[in-house]
């Protein structure tokens, strides 16, 4: 059995990284890359995937991403998923162009659009992360997390300019728009283009 793995939240400047692994047990119709599905369609598929698969979802908060770096957090999440689902799956496939140095992990670019298990993982990760960002929005009313979900939109960057970062923000993700030196990146975290 194949376990598909995908993430949501690699690029945002606030909120968690969410990685999901899915082993499909029964047929699920309408699966695709979460980015091409409407929010309504993703949310309708979410409980169907939960009901018809074995799955595991890993959240990594902004503070841990700042401390360990994004690549390490991704690798740790994938290893946790592989450990949790090893009885259900004998093959693991990650969307993207790297296996993060994990010997038994395969990878494929655009797997989230072409392999149903990875599509399902993409939906679980995206819906879980979006739900989290909407839930915390009330605790951080200055930032409108429910609107941009932590991504570096112009409106979000303007709010950071006005109020500074909160503890849901990734402090190692430098913002050019704030005059931060984008070369000063801690522990291999990616550069921000915003």
Summarize this structure briefly.
The protein has 194 residues and is of the alpha/beta class. The chain is 38% helix and 16% strand. A five-stranded mixed β-sheet has the order 3-2-1-4-5, sandwiched between helices.
Write out the CATH superfamily name: Ribonuclease H-like superfamily/Ribonuclease H
* Amount of beta strand: 15-25%
Q: Under the CATH scheme, which architecture would be assigned? A: 2-Layer Sandwich
| Poorly predicted ranges | 183-194
Mean pLDDT: 92
Instruction: Assign the CATH class.
Output: Alpha Beta
Radius of gyration: 17 Å
Helix and strand content put the structural class at alpha/beta
The helix fraction, in percent, is 25-40%
**Number of separate domains:** 1
The number of strands is 5
Number of helices: 7
Instruction: Provide the succession of SSEs.
Output: EEHEHHEEHHHH
Determine the N-to-C terminus distance. 41 Å
User: Taking strands numbered 1, 2, ... along the chain, how are they ordered across the largest sheet?
Assistant: 3-2-1-4-5
Quick one: overall form?
A: globular
CATH fold call: Nucleotidyltransferase, domain 5
- Main sheet: strands, sense, barrel: 5 strands, mixed
């Amino acid at each position: 059995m194949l376990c598909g793995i995908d993430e949501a939240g690699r690029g945002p400047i606030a909120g968690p990284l969410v990685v999901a692994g899915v082993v499909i047990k029964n047929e699920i119709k309408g699966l695709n890359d979460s980015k091409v599905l409407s929010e309504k369609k993703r949310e309708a598929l979410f409980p169907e995937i939960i009901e018809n698969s074995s799955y595991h979802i890993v959240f990594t908060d902004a503070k841990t991403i700042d401390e360990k770096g994004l690549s390490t957090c991704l690798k740790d999440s994938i290893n946790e998923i592989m450990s949790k689902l090893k009885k259900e799956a004998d093959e693991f496939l990650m969307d993207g162009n790297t296996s993060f140095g994990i010997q038994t992990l395969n990878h494929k670019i655009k797997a989230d659009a072409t392999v149903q298990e990875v599509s399902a993982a993409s939906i679980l990760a995206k819906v879980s992360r979006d739900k989290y960002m909407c839930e915390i929005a009330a605790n951080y009313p200055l930032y409108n997390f429910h609107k941009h979900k932590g991504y570096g939109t112009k409106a979000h960057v303007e709010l950071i300019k006005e109020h500074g970062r909160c503890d849901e923000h990734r402090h190692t993700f430098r913002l050019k728009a704030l005059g931060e030196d984008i070369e000063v990146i801690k522990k291999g975290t990616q550069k921000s283009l915003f």
